[in-house]
Records
---
Amino acid sequence: MSEQTAMVERRMEAFRERCRERGLALTHQRLVIYRVLAGMEHHPSPEALYEMVKKEIPSISLGTVYKNIHTFLDNGLLREVTLHHGTLRLETKLDPHHHLVCSRCKTIVDLEESDLEPVRLKKRLPKGFRVERFRVEAVGLCAACAVAHKSES
Amino acid sequence: MSEQTAMVERRMEAFRERCRERGLALTHQRLVIYRVLAGMEHHPSPEALYEMVKKEIPSISLGTVYKNIHTFLDNGLLREVTLHHGTLRLETKLDPHHHLVCSRCKTIVDLEESDLEPVRLKKRLPKGFRVERFRVEAVGLCAACAVAHKSES
DNA sequence: TTGACAAAGAAGAATCATTCTCATCTAATA
DNA sequence: TATTAGATGAGAATGATTCTTCTTTGTCAA
């Protein structure tokens, strides 16, 4: 069994267990969606995932893929690679800097480059990727949301 | 004159100059769009920007705002706060890690946390923001795009 | 096992963000 | 000031995502 297959198997096991814990039905569609996603090297869009899944379940609908993506995200079975897809956000400050992002209200505030220890790779990257700059997002809760969050839970 | 106003003025001056250099007409709409954006603390969406600009130019159309945003981006007058807006990207790898992002073909590849010197703030943040984790994007060109880019220019 | 019920799926309409088209309009410059 | 390339406004078109409705399927108690 290859490294890759073993990894997919491990993730599927975790998936099944989590679904049981959360009372999520283990439908054929869900198993296929998750397995396909776990087996992909890159980070597909819902549409791309749908195309892959259709090879195994031709009758599946795009809506089902979207609905399950959200179910999985809500249950910590998936991660979004990017916060703030969905709408363009703009800035006129052009010198290098980073951002604080509130994971609850999605507000973005600047973080000066000088407030952060310099970001550095430990070693050269394989694969010939040429890094031009590092973008850092400090994800967390803004003051207002931290308060709201505490009183919720 | 406040710090803030002075900063906006400086950006407007740079804006005017850049437009002249690039042969971009200095229309009333462009000046207002840019000034409003430069004066905002946060990082608005096109829709939010449009709402602000409409207070000064009620007849402006949303299409004009979008078109100018792209003109400004193309000419280095604005930055997108987030790459990858536009479509959700997913991953099943749940342990902390970062990403390499090709700015040309938008491919995303994982970067292990252990490949990077740990990210650290130099000092406590003001404003009571509570950081939960750092997300780092190493932005650059993948091997394939680096080659393509060289032969283009 | 079976049957009832809640959860999940399929299909397609609806919505939201963004882009495009095209008929005016205007900034730049001669 | 007249010319004209480039810019705007209005609204249609597109692409991504969500919603609605009806049908089907897992799950669980009997």
---
Amino acid sequence: MANSRSVRVVNFSPAELDERKRLILRAIVEEHVATGQPVGSRLLARVVALGLSPATVRNEMADLEESGYLESPHHSAGRIPSQLGYRFYVDHLMQPAQVPFDLLEVIRESLELKTRTVEAVMQQTAHLLGRLTNYMTVVAGPTAGASVLRRIDILPVDDRRAVLVAVTGGGAVHDWAIDLSTPLSDEELRYISEVLTRLLGGRALADVGRTVLQGLEDALAPYRDLLHVVLELLHDQGQAPGEPHLYQGGVANLLAHQEFHDPRLAMDVLWAVEQSPELRQELGQAGEPLVRIRIGTENVVDALSHCSMISVSYTVNGEWAGRLAIIGPTRMDYAHAVPVLQAVAEHLAGWFGRI
Amino acid sequence: MANSRSVRVVNFSPAELDERKRLILRAIVEEHVATGQPVGSRLLARVVALGLSPATVRNEMADLEESGYLESPHHSAGRIPSQLGYRFYVDHLMQPAQVPFDLLEVIRESLELKTRTVEAVMQQTAHLLGRLTNYMTVVAGPTAGASVLRRIDILPVDDRRAVLVAVTGGGAVHDWAIDLSTPLSDEELRYISEVLTRLLGGRALADVGRTVLQGLEDALAPYRDLLHVVLELLHDQGQAPGEPHLYQGGVANLLAHQEFHDPRLAMDVLWAVEQSPELRQELGQAGEPLVRIRIGTENVVDALSHCSMISVSYTVNGEWAGRLAIIGPTRMDYAHAVPVLQAVAEHLAGWFGRI
DNA sequence: TTTTAGCACTCCCACCTGCCGAGTGCTAAC
DNA sequence: GTTAGCACTCGGCAGGTGGGAGTGCTAAAA
């Protein structure tokens, strides 16, 4: 038994893994990410330029396994990183790669100014990320509730129907169909639009308070029926900030990874991405970490317990707007994916800024 | 050799397959669709209530194979329908199933009036179809170019930017960001919007002719710069009618079918659905058959040569608007899928009508 | 002439077997 | 603390086998 070693190792706090162990763990993660195969001691001794023999490396690997950073798929098959191993790698060992210039070029070209609709640019972003990272991509569009409003207009469709159109500071347009219980003239609608814009413009729906609503009710008293519908609608948008439209890209990439050759696993993931409200919330709700890495069971959804998800926030006019995410196996190339995501998020913000 | 038989059979024109052969072909298709297994003569003799012995059925099957309606995966494995077999089945043998009442109920509930945005209702439709048919679904949203316009407004975002908003007869809202090279006042923008609405309202962009454009140029001469941008934009929309936004649903369903357990096949399909301009066109371009069934290599895209795609048109206010499609293996339950698609298309039209 | 029973034949598939290579843990020597 | 040596374990693969399903053909029956 490796008691003399293991006892010591267990006392380590994770962040204090000894330099050599860190080196070895990092090499194992990167080798495994690159090849998909379990990593054996011989190969590792060759890769880690420390002049160590396989036997020594084996001892270190045994320690790392005992501390929970590695696991063996079966006896004598080499080691693979455990979820904890990936976590330690991501937190302490990973060195984010630099995004090569030609990739930046692709991003720039792809998010050109000639794209003129938010829908198109979000879809394009999803596809772009899919191509650049080789992982499946989910992108949350900006929500009406979280955005600063510039205008609110009610535009007639016919005498029974109209659309409520909200233009945000980023130039995104949100619209909702509303019924006109009593027909209103163009002038009346324009007047209502003006009042709505005057009182709601410059703030986000999520921040609209009682007093503003009261002001609206007073100013638009003659149009109580319509106002009721409109306010309820806007209120819903303000209260449910976590319901963005999700754009998918590179779905096929999911299947490219050996981990998802079992169709059942892949199906679970795809269902979750399509349906799960938790995931939608996770991507649509303003929240702290600019870059969030969830590994395996850290994910909010069970179906993703074999996946990692990296998401980064993007902004519109400096305000939080949504998250871009990629989903892949836990054996993910974190060091490359993170900077690519960040670069795309930046360019997307740029697109909104100079829309 | 079965010469005496085969010579005669070859002379049949497809539509004139003898009654018994039709019965057998139909049984084979339906049995194979249900089980996924090749169909053998013994089973078939039991299923087709003709009191025929397996040996007789074998002879008929040999004829059908020779005429190209069946094929054998390998010697002594039973028969499966060929692409031609499915085609004949779809054209002459299939009896569309009736949509059960509770399914209709699900459709009704799902496409309720409380859904207020076109984006949401299209996405919902895609998901719904995915659930109801167990096939992957692609849905083309209505395009700006093909829709009858009700209003065109230019709404300011800030003094350098604005959005062009087009409201269609179905209540769909399309928007594009535009730069204001010279700042314009709200009044000016409103005036421009009025002129645009007056001259373009009531017709589809695709139908706008030279004279109307000339009229615009005259009426809005002072705003040449802006008008140039706007007209180019509207012109593009009118000229490129086949570029709808595609909504996917039930992607996981693709993997549920044994035919796509090979991840490479599934990947090809997913890439095609995401990227192929041909497919986008196929679904976004007004075109004849209300129900279109493409089997195997009949598909416009190579990647779908192992798939069948059923698409149906839907309308908005009676005008052609887009297609709903499902994609699955050629071994598809055509008889059930077609009526479900039709029912959903009808309800979708209903949603737009009473939006 | 059409239908049927019988039969030999073909092919796939699931199972078993033994072998090989990769990689481990342990021990004893350095 | 490090290393070489060695016995051991396990998965994967090639090759062989038996069983089952289904066919085509032939000759007899209807």
